[in-house]
Amino acid sequence: MTPTADAFLSSADPILKDLITRFGPLPDRVTGLGDDPFDMLVLTISSQQLSTRSARAIYERIRARYGGRAPTPDEIWADDPELLRTSTGLSHAKVRALRSLSEHLLTGLLDFDRLRALDDDAMRALVCVTGIGEWTASIFLMFALGRPDVLVRGDLAIRQAIRRAYGLESLPSLAAVTALGEAWRPYRSRACLYLWRSVEISPVG
What we know:
The chain has helices at residues 2-12, 14-23, 37-47, 52-65, 73-78, 81-88, 92-107, 112-117, 121-127, 134-143, 156-165, 174-181, 188-199. It is mainly α.
């Protein structure tokens, strides 16, 4: 996908062409990371509104609580919520989110195999889980399911990158990011990778 996507984005947007020339070609990381989508969502939920360093520390404490590995939905659901919170540094809201996610998976309200087959409805299915909003769902669709056309429009780093690259006086609104991203279809995920690279910042919800 990389040469085709980069060529398309370069022809569609001269600003992105400059970023691709300066930083590309980036590794094609939007290919589906790992084999455990639940683990990816645990990481993404625990990372909400935190620096990369803080998020990683909390995620490692979560793994440590379950024997140095990723927990399963059954283990999260069976765990004592308060002990999970105090032993890992998760907030009350994030513990509720992890429990809601586990409940949705255990009851069949959310199914990862079915989710892979969905198109636009995938986002709606994810945000039905308590604590999963547009940012978390977008990151999951991009990095866990490898969707090539995801615009993480609410990500602070994306908005900062657009402000810098396009010479804006202030951060663009969500509507402005959405409008700008229309020219990047069907490779909006890759456009986001270049925008993140341009400011050397990981996704920030």
